Give the backbone structure.
Amino acid sequence: MSAPRPREPRAVRLVLIGLALAAIGLFLLVPLAAVFVEAFRHGAGAWFAAVSDPDARHAVKLTLLVAAIAVPVNAAFGLAAGWALGKFRFPGRNLVLTLVDLPFAVSPIVAGLVFVLVFGRSSPLGGWLAGHGIEVVFAVPGIVLATVFVTFPFVARELVPLMQSQGTDEEEAARVLGAGFFKTFLRVTLPNVKWALLYGVVLCTARAVGEFGAVSVVSGHIRGATNTLPLHVETLYNEYATQGAFAAASLLTLVALAAMLAKAFLSRHAGEEAP
Amino acid sequence: MARVTPSLLPGFGPALGVTLLGLSLVVLAPLATLLATSLRGSPAEFLAAVTTPRVLAALELSFLLSLGAAAVSALLGLLLGWVLVRYRFPGRRVLDALIDLPFALPTAVAGITLTTLYAPNGWLGKPLAALGVPVAFTPLGIGVALVFLGIPFTVRTLQPVLASLDPEVEDAAASLGATRLETVRRVLFPEVLPSLLTGTTLAFARGLGEYGSVVFISGNMPMKTEIAPLLVMTKLEQYDVAGATALAVVLLVSSFLLLLVLNRLEAWAEGRRR
């Protein structure tokens, strides 16, 4: 797409571009550069030692495990929500849409707190589960639950508006031609939204990997047991192991950059899916 | 019976069932537990818990700083949105992609990075401290972190609207004798206002609940630089569950109200576009 012919004098344009570059440089580029400068402050050897330390490796594994559970759960929910809320009109639909968005607005700390209240040792449910040897809070299940909570709207948010704008003509045609629900869904609906779905999955994965506040409340910060990578960063930083903290942070930053690249690539394709 | 349209497509019941079940189990039931827990004490106890000087100071700090940071994000959003949509210059697409960095970067990483940058011996903190403006471990530092976080919200809500503006309307205004500044103020600004407010409210809501990017740079001094979400965490760690719950309810209700405001704003923005 070409830009409209500028209506401002050249000087105004240059000043505005200059200010924008300064703002992006100061607020975004400098922090991005700082992560890697600090991570490699003592050389590649120190960086490698920090990211291959057993606690760091455990944190990476736990983070991947949590994402591997939370992301598919989210994708499945997002597809169901897309079908129910995107393809159909029914009373109460707007309320459900607002509730789906709720986790976006809720503080991650509040999200973590609610799971401590539900599953903590002092709650009836938590006490019962503990009696059966199942720990949720200060253990992996709590981390997974908190992550599912904070990432809850990601896929649904992409799919509902798209599926709504695509309408139901193609699905109805498939039905008339004799296709059942699953055939219609897999052969008609899913191919139409695949890029938007992938886009939502990328955003969801980035958040699942990087979630800090909610996980911080429920994890208990047990090194080598319930520390995810963002929590490992915090632990090291608070112990003044700054270089180690930034080395771990650089891994997370690489994930973030990959997600941004994927997002830039996918948003072009997702744009084509809109009718 | 209430009407569900269209009726020809199958799978409405199961899909809505899965949606509502997931929503209830993961979001609604836990949040209801929070409300129920907060109601265990008397209303007077609840009120007492959320009106201690320390809690009031934290709430005031969180609200004021989030609002101020959202306003700064709004200004930056207008500048960045305009430049990225209207002008062509080398590196524009890379810069455009970079706007998402605060979305994508884990908040803990943003937190320790901004703290290191703005600390008294940091790249940016040192010159600023020399000018007599300490940033890290002051309310200003919290503001910087919240502006960082807010930028993508305002830029990304403004960009589509700015791109959809018809430049011929501006030419018409100009040919009718409006100066460029008048055109911007009286023609362009009313068009983007709903989206600007939507983006600003999103930034505000996010800032109000933010934890990770703020805790490191804030210094966490009670009554001075202690934000509300951190105080929830502190109270929980001190086994003051009632206090933590009460403050969390205040935050939750605020988020919900902001969400309702956002719905109205989005409807307004949608109406504008038609």
